[in-house]
Amino acid sequence: MGEEVERALSTAQGVHEPSLALHVEDLTASYASGAVLWDVDMNVPPGVLAAIVGPNGAGKSTLLKCVIGALRPAAGHVYVFGRPYRQQRHRVAYVPQRTSVDWDFPTTALDVVTMGLYGRLGWLRRPGKREDDEAHEALAMVGMDAFAERQISQLSGGQQQRVFLARALVQDADLYLMDEPFAGVDATTERAIVDLFKDLRRRGKTVVAVHHDLQTVATYFDWLALLNVRLIAQGPVREVYTAEHLRAAYGPRVVLLEQTAEA
Amino acid sequence: MSALQAWLDQPSVTIMLIGALVGIAASLLGAFLVLRRESMLSDAISHSVLLGIVVVYLLTGTVDTPLQVVGAALAGLVTVWATDLLVRSRRVKQDAAIGLVFPALFAVAVLLINLYARDVHLDTDAVLLGEIAFAWLDVVSLGQLEVARSLLTMLVITAVNLAFVVLLYKELKLATFDPGLATALGKRPTLVGYALLGLVSVTAVGAFDAVGAILFVAFVIVPPTTAYLLTDRLWRMLAYGCVVAVGSSLAGYALARAYDVSVGGSMASATGAFLLLALLFGRHGLIARALGRRAPRAPQAADGSVVAEVSLAGPAEHGRGS
């Protein structure tokens, strides 16, 4: 197909900023309690490890929920690789907060990982041997294959997080949206996630993760969006991670944190 | 054929079959309600379906049509929707919201019966208690067979519920375990949830005549809760729930005959007896937990999990990667 024809077709189908992995436009979202996101414009280029950082209640998780359509924004648009999320589901893997699910649920680690493939399977069809094999492979990638048949409540917090990561890996997506992947995990898991991120970046994948730890953000990520209801700053982490921006996001109290980060 | 007819003509067979079918139909759906922590919605629904039945009667003048099922299902969904709305306002907690909505709908239904439908056979006592012991008196013809109306209704509803749970097993599981991922994958967890509660409403209507609201709620909640204590696999929880429900129907009927007491009451009591056994002796029961505390399994030990992780990941690298 000729390039011009392709471009004409793209415009006709409402393609926006196809060169960006994630493009958020004028996003405003609110719960009954008040505005959580106000007029947020955010761009994430492909192939970066991006952190969304901000104080509690800054709307970080809300932003991810708006991207995947779990929350309908009051205004604004979200585009994934140039198209609305609905058309790009197969290219996106979403990892909710570990504490958002009931780990006493009667199921195994392997079964949880297989859930990542339910989108591909479509309605009615059941997972079979192929899906099992892929799930085992993903579990092995996070060092959890030995725990495949274990009931999920018998896993430690870090192990549960790695099961969630394996579930994202099995989707073989281009964009990984993760809500607090480092929250409450042990040192081994933290290392495993960092290695995994590097591997994903090497393979040209994009990661957008909600992160809470200012000390590690510059080491683990190369792209940063600072959020506090409004977008404070975004860009390469070494440009955005400045005292001025952090104070704008967190208030004057951040000085202490910043000094710790430099220590 | 005539052997089957002779078998069905025994009231005891019909009563036990109806009890077993209500039990299977209710506990299949109940397993998901229990896991979603929405089991008390079944109580709400089983009451507010009366409003659907009454409204359809006032509109069409009949009580025995499939329209009644539609009306009841809608009333059930209105209950769920109104509860949801109250919870999302963040001014009322979920348990209170359930308690606000269904008594209101039930009260409206009772008033409507008093005002406009005094003459019709819509007995408010029967709504709560049902009368399974007389279910065999009301028969319909099915080809050459004469079958109790409640038995036929419950047979159809059980088949529908079974098909729903089997066909949408993975969607129900995902919507229950992780609605966030379900949304992200386009699996419509809200829609799946409403379908589940719609079928709970339909089942409540079917169970209504035969066993009443209270035994229905017992069958929705108790067998799955019992099964939950016995296994840690979802499909086994569904299967064990059905076994407990059928066992409760048979044991309950036997008890009712032996002591000459209410059939529905003894069936409900039987589910409770099974729950007590599971609570004591089940895999996740109190005795297993007490023993487990003395000799914890490796993955649950305070430091056992760390040992397992270190052995997998090689030498532990403690501290942050910097």
Which structural traits does this protein have?
heterodimer; A: 263 residues; alpha/beta; Rossmann fold; 6-stranded mixed beta sheet; 4-stranded antiparallel beta sheet; 11 helices; 10 strands; globular; B: 322 residues; mainly alpha; two-stranded antiparallel sheet; disordered C terminus
What is the CA-based Rg of chain B, rounded?
Answer: 23 Å
CATH architecture of chain A: 3-Layer(aba) Sandwich
How large, in whole angstroms, is the Cα Rg of chain A?
19 Å
Overall number of strands of chain B: 2
Which consecutive residue ranges of chain B, at least 5 long each, have pLDDT under 50? 294-322
Descriptive overview:
The complex is a heterodimer of chains A (263) and B (322). With 263 residues, chain A is an alpha/beta fold. Chain A has a single domain (16-262), classed as 3-Layer(aba) Sandwich (Rossmann fold), CATH 3.40.50. Helix content of chain A is 38%, strand content 24%. Chain A has 11 helices and 10 strands. In chain A, the strands form 2 sheets. A 6-stranded mixed beta sheet of chain A has the order 6-7-8-3-9-10, sandwiched between helices. In chain A, strands 2-1-4-5 form a 4-stranded antiparallel beta sheet, covered by helices on one side. In chain A, helix 6 packs parallel to helix 7. Chain A is globular, with a radius of gyration of 19 Å. Chain A starts with a helix and ends with a helix. The mean pLDDT of chain A is 88. Chain B has helices at residues 2-8, 11-35, 40-60, 66-88, 94-116, 124-129, 149-167, 169-177, 179-184, 189-228, 234-259, 263-281, 286-294, 304-313, and strands at 139-142, 145-148. In chain B, 46% of the residues are buried. A two-stranded antiparallel sheet of chain B has the order 1-2. Chain B is globular. In chain B, 75% of the residues lie in helices and 2% in strands. Chain B has a domain at 2-217. Chain B is built from 14 helices and 2 strands. Chain B is an all-alpha fold and 322 residues long. The longest helix of chain B has 40 residues, at 189-228. At the A-B interface, helix 4, helix 6, helix 7 and helix 8 of A face helix 8, helix 9, helix 11 and helix 14 of B.
